[in-house]
Amino acid sequence: MSSVRVQGLTKRFGNHAAVFEVSFDVPTGGTIALLGPSGCGKTTILRCLAGLETPDFGVIDIDGEPVFDHAKGIDLAPERRGLGIVFQSYAVWPHMTVAENVAFPLKVRGMGAAERKDRAARMLELVGLKGFEDRSATLVSGGQQQRIALARALVHEPRLVLFDEALSNLDTRLRQQMRMELRMLQERLGFTAVYVTHDQAEAFGLADTVILMNNGAIEITGPSREVFLHPRSAFAARFFGMNVLEGRLLESQSDPRYLEAELSPRLIVRGVAAPEQDLQPNGRVLACIRKDAVHVFRPERPEDATGTIVAASFLGAEEEYLVEVAGVRIQTIGAAVGLQKGDAVCVTMAADEWVFVR
Ligand SMILES: Nc1ncnc2c1ncn2[C@@H]1O[C@H](COP(=O)(O)OP(=O)(O)OP(=O)(O)O)[C@@H](O)[C@H]1O
Ligand SMILES: [Mg+2]
């Protein structure tokens, strides 16, 4: 059974459709990420699910029960939808202790003091904050406040938890750690999760299924790995940080499994068409390749060089290069090997890494 079913969801602000005819399902205990650039409608969808925003059209079912149905005039209040929400701003209540913050949703639901205390303590242990119960909620670090918000969202054992950029305010190391912990917590408690994020690593790290949004509509959706490795549009390829290069499509001379694209008079690359592309021989094509699928290295003999480093940027464990090959500029990322601007290099790009889209 689906925990969440969204059908034909549309939400306008004035003349602007922030969300347009969006439909998706999340199975019970499943995890989904709404991913996309700023302003594409992610938060609006989440707020519609929570009942904080009234959609203009569509149906939202939670555990088989309609919580919103435009045609039938159903619109359940947020507190009757039985879900937990974690926002980017931790929104812990400063006048309460850590334990009071976490226990608050139980108090609202009329649970007795002893049981509240007990449950809050168990939840705090689960998020690694055992021993912090009596501390003022503002006297803890940002990462700890985020855990308090998490514990508070989960304490009443909601069937569905919504996260809006919940880890964005944390530093890199803490964000990675929380991502792992959240994933384990979700598997352990089994709640259904909808994550909203503009960060692809977060989307892939947290969710089994990714929905990439583009200007209020769904661009592509599928299993995380699939969506990342096989982008089906130039928008998706660019969003995931791939090279997207203009070229002309050719029939492969040597191998019928591949197509070829001419990126410049001296650079022809071999690849495969993304699914559902109407590509015409001799027509314009966009050739996409991941930065980490382009390899640059020093040639053994200078005359073997096929490219030149145009720009180099050191990122720590990795290095990014802009390399020019036969008049075409391509970005690469890989283990830091200390190449410099102006270095002559060999460039290799595997045929099955090129994906052609319209
Ligand atoms: N209350 C509102 N009134 C008017 N316009 C709004 C309102 N809320 C959102 N919008 C608009 O709707 C669009 C989608 O906004 P939304 O907050 O859903 O984007 P988002 O994908 O969450 O972006 P971000 O990654 O920046 O948080 C934007 O163009 C935004 O300006
Ligand atoms: Mg948002």
In short:
The protein has 358 residues and is α+β, with helices and mostly antiparallel strands. Helix content is 23%, strand content 38%. The strands form four sheets. It has a six-stranded mixed beta sheet with strand order 7-8-9-3-10-11, with helices on both faces.
Structural overview:
There is one protein chain. With 358 residues, the protein is of the alpha+beta class. Strands 7-8-9-3-10-11 form a six-stranded mixed sheet, with helices on both faces. The protein has eight helices and 21 strands. The mean pLDDT is 91. Helix 2 packs across helix 3, helix 2 (98-108) runs parallel beside helix 4 and helix 3 crosses helix 4. A hairpin with a 4-residue loop joins strand 5 and strand 6. The protein has helices spanning 42-50, 98-108, 113-126, 142-154, 172-189, 200-206, 224-229, 234-239, and strands at 2-13, 16-27, 31-35, 57-62, 65-69, 74-75, 83-86, 160-164, 192-197, 209-214, 217-223, 243-251, 259-264, 267-273, 284-289, 294-297, 307-314, 318-325, 328-335, 344-349, 355-357. It binds adenosine-5'-triphosphate and magnesium ion.
CATH architecture of the largest domain: 3-Layer(aba) Sandwich
Strand content: 35-45%
The first-to-last residue Cα distance is 37 Å
* Class from secondary-structure proportions: alpha+beta
Following the backbone from N to C, one meets helices and strands in this order, namely EEEHEEEEHHHEHEHEEHHEEEEEEEEEE
Radius of gyration: 25 Å
